[in-house]
Design brief:
about 140 residues, mainly beta, M1 Pyruvate Kinase, Domain 3, eight-stranded mixed β-sheet, 3 helices
Length: about 140
């Protein structure tokens, strides 16, 4: 069963990211109180726990590695279920995958070496279609 393995919030631009046990996700906004939430296609950032582990074991100096912060981390769901346009029930919410992968910066060591990083292909951005609460451990179901 796929489930939420972490929920993370950053309340101010210069603040530290911290893990929370649950959060309220608002329709067309994202995580309530999160600095990175707002209207548009990138309301929530999602990363599979397996992909975060790949980033953490990469010993290259990826420019985004310390700065890229997922809002929701999940475990146990194949990346095929996370294609653009896919709908997910996460806890009490319904979210839609709006963007797959993330833009890389040309000054990144990995890009300059003509290589690829895990975040470029594995990061997902979601829009909240139906408000609700998400708790650590909640089931994640493609719909």
């Amino acid at each position: 069963m796929a489930h939420v393995s972490g929920i993370f919030i950053k309340e101010t631009k210069d603040g530290l990211r911290r893990e929370i046990e649950e959060g309220m996700f608002l329709e067309n906004h994202g995580l309530e109180g999160d600095f990175n939430s707002g209207e548009g296609p990138r309301q929530v950032c999602l990363l599979r726990r397996e992909d975060r582990a790949e980033v953490e074991k990469d010993d290259r100096d990826g420019l985004c590695f310390p700065r890229f912060l997922e809002t929701i981390q999940i475990e146990g769901l194949d990346s095929e279920a996370l294609e653009k346009g896919s709908w997910l029930r996460i806890g009490d919410t319904i979210m839609k995958v709006t963007v797959t992968g993330k833009k890389c910066w040309p000054e990144c060591e990995i890009i300059r070496a003509k290589s690829t990083c895990a975040l470029a292909k594995s990061a997902r951005f979601l829009a909240v279609l139906e408000s609700g609460r998400v708790r650590k451990g909640d089931e994640v179901t493609p719909i």
